[in-house]
């Protein structure tokens, strides 16, 4: 899930082709923080494109020289003064790619002129919206299968990873709220794609955990907002080797990438892990999600409409509460009453 669109990736691929091998390898080390070891030049270019969060981030790198960007634009027929500064060259490059995108979109659009054609188009659009509502459950299930299979495969005891885990799967300003209640209880917020991806990776790669989601109708709930945010709530069990360590409950906020077809990236994650010793008596090891879609939508409304100061929950507040349930609610009690919203703990048994 790269931060670049297909057109941007293709353009950057051509631009990077103007660098020599040593420059490509050095740039790959910088972009991936030396965590990826490419086998050859093409492998290094692929890594650079996948791990770059935006065009600006990539082209502003010192190793992408001003002369290289100028030469690329010249090969594309974009004539600009040779003395143009680098930041202006980057803007010219972005403008050129945007123009190419508009031309491609214009080529694929078919004008609707007849009344009957317009009616058919509107009917298809309506059916498409209805189908999209029905598919949220399927989207949530497919996402969870992909996410947990990829994350769990990073566990060194399970053999070779099944795919590349990294910040490319998250929006750059992603937030992770992690609450755990094991030998101690705590809640910590993590910000940014790099930090969030590394924290989640450490659960399986360093702590050797295995997260097993319950994807039946009781363990998985999905909802969407009017703005296009899809929320996925899932519950499951936590294992280490042959031992069940407890349960986890998780809410994902997903936003579709507008430049890459059928691609969603993670905007926020609320993760709650409860150790077996901290579970209430009688709690089953196949946890269920009891909230409904309306609860998820209310949860979304609260986290998007409240100010940052009203949403922040300190570690001490959570520990002193004795339960830590607020860690996933993220709500201000007085504000919720004022808005006449009754927001339960989004993931409870």
Automatic annotation (TrEMBL):
Entry-linked InterPro entries: NTF2-like_dom_sf, UPF_C3orf38
GO process terms (BP): positive regulation of apoptotic process
Gene Ontology cellular-component annotations: nucleus
PANTHER family the UniProt entry points to: DENSE INCISORS (PTHR21084)
Protein name per the record: Chromosome 3 open reading frame 38
Organism from which the protein derives: Ictidomys tridecemlineatus (Thirteen-lined ground squirrel)
Recorded name of the encoding gene: C3orf38
């Amino acid at each position: 899930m790269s931060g670049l669109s297909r057109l941007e990736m293709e353009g950057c691929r051509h631009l990077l082709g103007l660098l020599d091998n040593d420059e490509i390898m050095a740039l790959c080390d910088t972009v991936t923080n030396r965590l990826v070891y490419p086998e050859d030049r093409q492998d290094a270019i692929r890594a650079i494109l996948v791990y770059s969060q935006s065009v600006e981030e990539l082209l502003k790198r010192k190793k992408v020289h001003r002369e290289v960007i100028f030469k690329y634009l010249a090969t594309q027929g974009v004539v600009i003064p040779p003395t143009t500064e680098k930041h202006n060259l980057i803007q010219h490059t972005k403008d050129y790619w945007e123009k190419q995108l508009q031309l491609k979109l214009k080529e694929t659009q078919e004008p609707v002129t007849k009344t009957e054609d317009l009616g058919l188009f509107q009917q298809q659009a309506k059916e498409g919206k209805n189908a999209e509502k029905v598919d949220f459950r399927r989207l949530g299930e497919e996402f969870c299968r992909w996410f947990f299979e990829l994350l769990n495969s990073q566990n060194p005891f399970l053999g070779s990873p099944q795919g590349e885990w990294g910040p490319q799967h998250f929006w750059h300003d992603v937030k992770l709220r992690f609450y755990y209640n094991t030998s101690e209880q705590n809640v910590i917020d993590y910000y940014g794609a790099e930090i969030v991806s590394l924290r989640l990776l450490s659960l399986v790669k360093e702590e050797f955990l295995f997260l097993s989601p319950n994807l039946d109708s009781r363990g998985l709930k999905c909802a969407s907002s009017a703005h296009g945010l899809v929320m996925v709530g899932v519950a499951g069990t936590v294992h280490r080797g042959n031992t069940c360590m407890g349960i986890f409950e998780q809410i994902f906020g997903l936003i579709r990438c507008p430049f890459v077809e059928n691609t969603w990236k993670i905007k926020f994650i609320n993760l709650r892990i409860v150790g077996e010793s901290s579970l209430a008596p009688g709690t089953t090891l196949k946890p269920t999600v009891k909230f409904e879609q309306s609860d998820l939508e209310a949860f979304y409304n609260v986290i998007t409409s409240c100010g940052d100061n009203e949403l922040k929950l300190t570690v001490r507040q959570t520990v002193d509460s004795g339960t830590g349930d607020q860690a996933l609610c993220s709500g201000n009690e007085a504000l919720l009453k004022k808005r006449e919203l009754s927001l339960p703990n989004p993931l409870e048994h």
